[in-house]
Amino acid sequence: MTGSVHQKNLSSESNAFSFGLEVIGKTEPLIAEYIRGELQNQRSQLKLIASENYASPAVLLAMGNWFSDKYAEGTPGHRFYAGCDFVDKVETLAAQNAKELFDAKYAYVQPHSGIDANLVAFWALLAYRVEAPFLETKNVKHVNDLEDEDWDFLRKAFGDQRMIGMSLDAGGHLTHGFRPNISGKLFDQRSYGVDPKTEQLDYDSVRSLAEEFRPLIIVAGYSAYPRRVNFAKMREIADSVGALLMVDMAHFSGLVAGKVFTGDYDPIPNAHIVTSTTHKSLRGPRGGIVLSNETDLAEFIDKGCPMVLGGPLANVMAAKAVAFSEAKTTAFQTYAQQVVDNAKALAEGIEKRGGRLVTGGTENHLVLVDVRSFGLTGRQAETALEESGVIVNRNAIPFDPNGAWYTSGIRLGTPALTTIGMSCDDMDEVAEIICSVLSATSPASTTSGEESKAKFMLSDNVSVDNRNRCAELLRLNPLYPEIDSTI
Description:
Number of domains: 2
Structural class: alpha/beta
CATH class of the largest domain: Alpha Beta
CATH architecture of the largest domain: 3-Layer(aba) Sandwich
Helix content: 40-55%
Strand content: 5-15%
């Protein structure tokens, strides 16, 4: 069968990607080869990284088009470049879809990533609470109108602001004010943690810290905390000390969109400002968004470009619009609930096979396993599982004795496997695979004879057996079944 005849028999999705790879291959065949290789990799491994998912073919295709060529600094109707008519339409539609999806009064869809969304939010809050009042006292409308002495005062005032956020080992994120990240250089930051016994968020401790430290911003949200957060309580704490509540829902935005997290656990009605990525549990393109019900913040958020962002990526905003449209369906709500059900099934499966779960379980899309119960470090567990066909990431646990590099935990997430149709019964099989590998893995020795934190011993037979079990699960739940395996 010739290629052209074969393509005619493929689905429209297969044809689209097949022709695209053919075009790419004419210019740089290695890139086409690597793209094919990545697809095959993802089709042959159990993806349990909590921050990853599989975007739909429609979302992927929306990124590869002529919008990639257009500069569009500014906002719809107020651009610094001419010829942005259709970019305006794309951005307006993406923002409207986001507002409808999250029941928010305002949406900003330009951020290129989660860190960009957080930077936009930080500077919007600084502009709102620090800059605008100062300009008013000086009777000017713009920072360019300030005298040099006043400008120096304002710049120092920006750097004097305080923030509190969840500690890294409790499940927080680098972008929440930690020194290696620009947010830690921008704010004077302190961390709140979890109860040493329950490993769950202690709201009384958060309140005490806020009353003592008096921050401008309280950041809520997480990257490795397997429980819900009561955002109504966090807003009460923020209001009690005159702080602004910012929620980073990058990890669980799909659960908010899917109406799994509602009421006190929905950040939109409770926070002053909310940021998110658009991939992860939301299943869109890699990018970010900022949402708010505080309409007086909108003018400050809209200055994200050129405040901290470069020109918006119109092609990615187009893909965001598609993803938000997908997430507005009842099918997505069913998906979001299954993500949580699958996480609970995975947690129960690991616990009954001897694994220790941080916080004792999960209420969201992720499971944090203390692999010291298997005699391993997180790094050893991560690599042993990868050799066996399971992709996870090592992760610190509360009060981790092994630090942030080797760690004592692994983080598991169910969004991706749920996307390809896996059920709670499948999660029990996944738990069996994970525990089978970890139980058969043991630390190796260093050259000095000490127990290694990185090297390990695992029988090839165990790896091969579990790769086969992974392959069978993936055969029954294939990734992109509408796209031919031979493209």
